[in-house]
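BUG: 3D viewer hangs when loading the predicted structure for this chain

Environment: internal workstation, default settings.
Expected: structure renders.
Actual: progress bar stalls at 90%.

Input used:
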Amino acid sequence: MGLLQEQVALITGAGGGIGRGVAHSFAKAGAAVVVAELDVDSGKAVAEELQALGARALFIKTDVSSKSDIEAAIQLAVEQFDGLDILVNNAFAPTPNVLLEEKTDAMLAQTLDSTVWAAWWSMKAALPHMQARGGGKIINFYSIDTEIGAWLHGDYNTAKAAIVGLTRSAASEWGRFNIRVNAIAPTAMGATFHKLAEENPGFAEKSASMRPLGRCGEPEEDIGPVVVFLASEMSRFVTGETIHVDGGLHLPGYNSRPAGVPIREY
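C-alpha cells produced before the viewer hung:
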C-alpha cells in the first residue's frame, strides 16, 4: 500500500517541470491524479505517463487564472474519482523579467490571477469536498525569490508573499475541518532551468555551487517526495508550515542583481 493509496489529488500546472515530478511521485504513492494543465499536449502526455505507471489519471484543461475553469476542474475530478483529498497549487503564468519600475498593472494582475486568486478559488472550491471526506491536504507553492527580493520578479515576489498569508490563514481556520494547509518553496531543474542552462554556459554548475548540498534538485526525486509527505498521514500533525526544498539555497541566498544595472542612478 502506498502512502497515498485511495487518495484523490488535483495538481495544477502538472504538465511539466515540478508539477510533472509531483504528479509522478503521487502516482507511485498510489494516488489518483488529476492533471490540471493549460497546455493540452503536455497535460495529456503526463496523464498517459501516469496511466502507464498503473495509476488512475485524468487530464483536465485548466486555465488557473479563470475561476470558472478551476471550479469546473475540481467538480469534474470529484465526479470522476468520487471525491477530492489533496490539492496542490503549483501553476502560475510568468510575466517578462523587467525592473520593478517597468512592471505594469497588467503584469501584476496576471501574476495575482494565476497565483493568489488561483489558490483562493481552488481552495474555496475544494473545501466542501474535503469536508465531505472528513478532511484534506492543501499544498501551496511559495518561493525563495520573495525572501531575497529577487530582481525582475517584483510582481511574482508580491504574489508569493500573499500565498504565505493565505496558507497560514487557511491552516489556522480550517484545522477544525481536519484540513492541513502547508507551503513549500522549491527549486529544481524544470523547463526554465534547462532553458537557462542551454542559453548560458556554466549556469548549471554555478547554480549547483550556490547550494550547501552542492547540486540542483530533480523535480520527481527531490521535490515530489516532500509534497507526498505533506499530503500523507506522515505529516498528520503538521500545518501552517513553509518548507524550503532547495538544497539549502535559502541559507546563503543569492545575488539576483542583473549585470549592467548601476549602483546609483541619481
